[in-house]
Amino acid sequence: MSTSPMNVVVGVAGGIAAYKACHVVRHFKEAGHQVRVVPTAAALNFVGAATFEALSGNPVSATVFDAVDEVQHVRVGKEADLVVIAPATADLLARMAHGCADDLLTTTLLVATCPVVVAPAMHTEMWEHPATQANVELLRSRGVIVLEPAHGRLTGNDTGPGRLLDPEQIVTLALAANASTSFRRDLEGKRVLITAGGTQEHIDPVRYIGNHSSGRQAYALAELAAQRGAEVSIVAANTEVLPTPAGAVVARVRSARDLQEAVFERAENQDVILMVAAVADVRPAEVAETKLKKGANDAQLQQLTLKENPDILRSLVQARDSGGMKAQPLIVGFAAETGSKERDALDLAREKLKRKGCDLLMFNEVSGDQVFGKLRNRGVLLGSDGSETPVADGTKLEVAGVILDEIAERLRRDS
Q: Which part of the chain is the DNA/pantothenate metabolism flavoprotein C-terminal domain (predicted)?
């Protein structure tokens, strides 16, 4: 993801979600970028120009007849490093698809040669209408990145696909697109199952054995897989603070055994399974029904009897290889290793790949407070065929792009 300041144009169409564009502008500004807001005339019925000017620090205009001496209708698009439209209505998508140039936003779009990222927002019926879908397909064929909208509450009492993504999601995806993360639709129609977060094993009603996994890498994979056309299911262990990736179906679990049950319920017809969750290796042999008190229960607290949890990744591989699944999914494991003076962390990951038998294994070194809960990641993607692909330091969405590129290529080769 680019760390140098960019000139970002935020286009705003006239929908009820226009107020969320204010948060999009703020996120870009807080990241150090210059922002120029270009609304349609209809958008100014929802949010006034003064608001956008105050947030962006730049003048706001919707018409080509302002600043004519500066040739504004050409200059804004030519100077842009990134254009983000949030929200994009069905009307704006249609005008973009047909090359209209009747206001400052559409002329800017015709001039811009930088990445263009579009976040639609409209009622479900409008999003699913054949005309809108044809316009989206045409724009994507021209290289425009049209994001999948979220599922959720719409205007009034309606619920369904068409809700604008959270502003932070839009900004993160847009910056990843600017950093050349692929949004090509190479996972169209593929079913992808992803486990996320860290499991918790109860000691008593208050305490548990857990880990530091935040679920961010898994959610980045889900977010990008959905944007690349996949049908995404997530089995999430304790990731409530993260926004749900667009279009993904989430099943929430707590313990390793909960996660195992949920995964095997869904594994039958998957094309890809990514076991990203940090699963507890052990659990208490007995769970106290009431909170264990210091003093009265010191012996129990100091000498917990632990029991090994099931090896879910290995069990999945065995079920697939023995013909226990209708599909033959590509299975990806993850290895968070620390290494030691005696053993290199990467060697431990290589051994884990052989032991688990999965097709790919993403290795991360997590010593020194790296990776867990952080916004960036790096590592090595190991293949069962002996391949080793270094994954350079990047945002977790950029790392997800490298992993999904390899998955898409293997699916293509195997088809």
A: 187-409
Q: What is the DSSP letter of 293?
A: P
Sorted by where each starts, the structural domains of the chain and their CATH numbers stand as 7-178 (3.40.50.1950), 191-414 (3.40.50.10300)
Residue 211 designated active-site: yes
Widest CA span in the chain:
83
β-strand partners of 293? none
Select which of 135, 211, 238, 377 is catalytic: 211
**pTM, full prediction:** 0.90
The verdict on whether residue 281 carries a ligand-binding annotation is yes
Annotation-wise, does 334 bind a ligand?
yes
| H/E run at residue 381 | strand 376-383
310 annotated among ligand-binding-site residues: yes
pLDDT (tens place) for every residue of the chain, 415 residues total: 445 899 999 999 999 999 999 999 999 999 999 999 999 999 999 999 999 999 999 999 998 888 887 777 899 999 999 999 999 999 999 999 999 999 999 999 999 999 999 999 999 999 999 999 999 999 999 999 999 999 888 877 888 889 999 999 999 999 999 888 899 999 999 999 999 999 999 999 999 999 888 899 999 999 999 999 999 999 999 887 788 898 899 999 999 999 999 999 999 999 999 999 999 999 999 898 888 887 766 666 677 889 999 999 999 999 999 988 888 999 999 998 887 777 889 999 999 999 999 999 999 987 655 556 577 899 999 999 999 999 999 999 999 999 999 999 999 998 7
369 is in an annotated binding site: no
DSSP string, 57-104: SS----STTSSGGGTHHHHHHHT-SEEEEEEE-HHHHHHHHTT--SSH
